[in-house]
Design goal:
alpha/beta; 3-stranded mixed β-sheet; 8 strands; globular
Length: 243
Amino acid sequence: MSALLLERRDDRVVATLNRPSVRNAIDQGMVDELHALCEELEREPRVLILIGADGIFASGADISQLRERNADDARKGINSTIFRRIRSLPMPVIAAVDGYALGGGAELAYAADIRIGTPRVRFGNPETGLGIIAAAGATWRLPEIVGHARASELLLTGRIIDGEEALAWGLVSSLHEPDALLDAAHALADRIGANGSRATQLTKLALLAGPDQHPAIELEVQAELFDSDEKHRRMTAFLERRR
């Protein structure tokens, strides 16, 4: 059975993490399928919505596989590599998070551009309790999202937070009832899709650029957009609506 269920539309792909018997734990098979999906979305840029089957996002990396990995495996960055690839996709990634998002599952959510959740969501990084660290992006992405002090507390204690606390911290931007979560993700994708595709891609590129690349990167991508047919068409339509 596939570890990912894919629904493809013209402007988006919904990828459902589909290993419900192990709470959608991320194993090598799921990683391989995510790489194949990334290859597709790098060729044909579309919004990606990530969601988990059966009311659980992802309970973490598959511990049965993780236990057998050695130092060489750690240096390969198996999960880290795919999460970086997801983060770097040309169009935005939306994580629609319900239930458990722990360990590697939390780190997958951190790699998204936008996270929304439900009141019953549970975020946490309990890796130190297993004798390892959260090495697939949490130590640098989580401080960017919630601040260094809060990230330190979560990563050093392994504490799990609920939806209300995740919302208060800015880890998710909104909460929705479980049966409305996917509709809320689609609503975000609709808003993104109504905008200029190239402008959206370049906005994401600028958001991901390092501090040393600003403000030069904004000026360069704006120069491209200023000469585009789409900019002229959209601005003309705006002015005509005002008249």
